[in-house]
Each structure stands twice: as structure tokens, then as C-alpha cells.
Write a structure and sequence with these properties.
By secondary structure, this protein is of the alpha+beta class. It has one domain: Transposase IS200-like (Alpha-Beta Plaits), CATH 3.30.70.1290. Helix content is about 30%, strand content about 25%. It is built from 4 helices and 6 strands; from the N terminus they run E-E-E-H-E-E-H-H-E-H. Helix 1 packs across helix 2. The protein is elongated and about 70 Å long. The N and C termini lie far apart (about 60 Å).
Length: about 160
């Protein structure tokens, strides 16, 4: 994956999220799953990120999301769960199906969730890299040229 660039940051922040339906009820049909994935895609865009991958089963959804560092994962999760639940209930056909399993105006999702950060390097590799920073191999790749040395004017003498 490519690093993302903003005015004051360069980042690559990806998250794997899993939401389960309330009481693990099998309320996600293929049509509801496609609807939810499209909503998640748009919510991610609205928050400056990108939905990289998504898939549903009858009682849960997996999301792989890239987000900028200023976006708090807990806030994104709250928005994703709230908006998808509301919009599923607003669709009359989906709502009738969901109400076969979840009575009343209850949320589609369980309050719990799974989240993990993802990355291209293993934790051991990152730890090794961090610990190697004071070695000769990782000294800065430039030489001091004296370009910014203070010069003395003839008045200083």
C-alpha cells in the first residue's frame, strides 16, 4: 500500500474491524450486506478514509479500512454502527426482515466490536528497527556542510 500524504503528515493507518449483530441473530441477507457495505464505503470517504475491503456473513461484518491519524477509531466505529443500523431500519423491506429477529427499534449491532491495526511489518521487525536507531548504520545520511554557520562580520572584530 502507498503512504498517504497530508499537509503535515505522512501516514498509513489501516484497521480490521468486526461488528456482530445483536444477539448474533442471522439478520444480514446478501442484499442487506451489500447495502451495509455501500454505506460503510461512503462513511469512510466522508471521514477522509477508504474502505479497502468488506464482507458480511449472516451475523457479522468484516471491514478493512484506511483512515487518517486525526480520525479516532472509536468515533468511526460509533458512526459506522449507528448510521448502518439507522439506514437499515429506514428501508421498509430490510426493516421487516430484521424485525423477524430483533424486536422493536433495537440497534442492528451488538455494542461490542473487534478492532486491530494492520501493517506490512511484523511487530518483531518494527521493534528491531526502533532498537537499531542508535547504531552507526542508521546515522543521518548527510554531512554537516557548515552552510548555516554563523559568520563574523568585520564589525565583530
Amino acid at each position: 500500500m502507498d503512504y498517504k500524504k497530508k499537509a503535515h503528515s505522512v501516514y498509513l493507518m489501516t484497521y480490521h474491524m468486526v461488528f456482530v449483530t445483536k444477539y448474533r441473530k442471522p439478520v444480514i441477507t446478501d442484499e442487506i450486506g451489500d447495502f451495509i457495505k455501500d454505506l460503510c464505503r461512503q462513511i469512510c470517504i466522508d471521514h477522509g478514509g477508504k474502505l479497502l475491503s468488506a464482507e458480511t456473513d449472516m451475523d457479522h461484518i468484516h471491514l478493512l479500512i484506511s483512515m487518517p491519524p486525526q480520525e479516532r477509531p472509536s468515533d468511526l466505529i460509533r458512526v459506522l454502527k449507528t448510521q448502518t443500523s439507522k439506514k437499515v431500519h429506514m428501508n421498509e423491506t430490510f426493516d421487516q426482515y430484521v424485525k423477524q429477529y430483533l424486536y422493536g427499534n433495537t440497534s442492528l449491532w451488538s455494542p461490542s466490536y473487534f478492532i486491530a491495526t494492520t501493517g506490512g511489518a511484523t511487530l518483531e521487525k518494527v521493534k528491531e528497527y526502533v532498537e537499531s536507531q542508535r547504531t552507526d548504520d542508521h546515522k543521518r545520511k548527510y554531512k554537516k556542510t557548515g552552510k548555516y554557520k554563523k559568520t563574523h562580520s568585520s564589525a565583530d572584530n
